[in-house]
Amino acid sequence: MPRWIQVVIFVLIIGLIALFAFGLRARGEPQIASGPAPDFTLTSFEGQKIRLSELRGKVVVINFWASWCEPCRDEAAFLEQAWRQYKDRGVVFIGVNYVDSETSARAYLKEFGITYFNGPDIGSEIYQRFRAKGVPETYFIGKDGNVYGNAIGPITRTSTSMTERAFLQKLEELLAR
Questions:
Q1: Which residues span the domain enclosing 2?
Q2: Which of 2, 50, 148, 158 has its CA 20 to 30 A from that of 129?
Q3: Rounded to an integer, what is the distance from CA 168 to the centroid of its chain?
Q4: Residue 22 shares a structural domain with residue 86
Q5: Which of 62, 36, 37 is nearest to 121 (CA)?
Q6: DSSP secondary structure string, 9-63?
Q7: pTM
Q8: Over the stretch 122-162, which tens digit does the pLDDT of each residue have?
Q9: Are residues 70 and 144 in the same domain?
Q10: Distance CA 45, CA 83 (A)
Q11: Quick one: 66 and 115 in the same domain?
């Protein structure tokens, strides 16, 4: 077996162990559903930066996703549609790509025609700050910078997590605050 294959296998094993260890540590802490949103800076796939604290005064939707996640694929088109519907009303969507290759992530964004801000969560730092446990997960940040709920699981027409209708109602509620 070539040396480079051994190195790749070793790195993958270490990565899986790290993910497992993080999962055990975070298992007892629930996802953030209220209170001040953890601040972060995310660099997009195109090299642009966005900082959550600089978006005060706007409603922010943060969606954790991965190209390998089937439920993420189920909600992708709806999220893009909602972004286009609300972007001129002071709503910002941020896609946080979790544990993915850049090539796969870019292909996913292209496949679904996603135009809102997206970037890779290097080292899963943002994921950890929100105490996320899987993908997809979506967080709603009000104009005051506080978290006003989350959707754990996909947002679809018949979702057990959050329906598309409830998602849009949540945006309207936050815009009215």
A1: 1-29
A2: 158
A3: 17
A4: no
A5: 62
A6: HHHHHHHHHHHHHHHHHHTTSPPP-EEEPPP-EEE-TTS-EEEGGGGTTSEEEEE
A7: 0.84
A8: 999 999 999 999 999 999 999 999 999 999 999 999 988 89
A9: yes
A10: 18
A11: yes
Per the DSSP assignment, residues forming a β-bridge with 43 are: 49
Tokens read off for 109: 């964004």
Specify which residues 97 forms β-bridges with: 65, 120
Render pLDDT for 32-59 as a digit per residue (tens, 0 to 9): 999 999 999 999 999 999 999 999 999 9
If DSSP codes are grouped into helix, strand and coil, which group holds residue 85?
helix
List C-alpha distances in Å: 173 to 68, 91, 132, 142, 166: 32, 12, 24, 9, 10
CATH number at residue 125: 3.40.30.10
Does one domain contain both 15 and 73? no
For residues 36-47, b (16+ Cβ closer than 10 Å) or e, as one string? ebbebebeeeee
Looking at the fold, whether 88 and 172 belong to one and the same domain comes out as yes
Residues 120 and 108 in one domain: yes
Cα gap 17→10, rounded to integer Å:
11
Q: And the tokens for 44?
A: 């997009």
Question: Residue 168 has which token pair?
Answer: 């849009």
Same domain for 20 and 41:
no
Q: Residue type at 147?
A: V
Q: Which residues contact 89 (CB under 8 A, 6 or more apart)?
A: 175
How many domains is the chain partitioned into structurally? 2
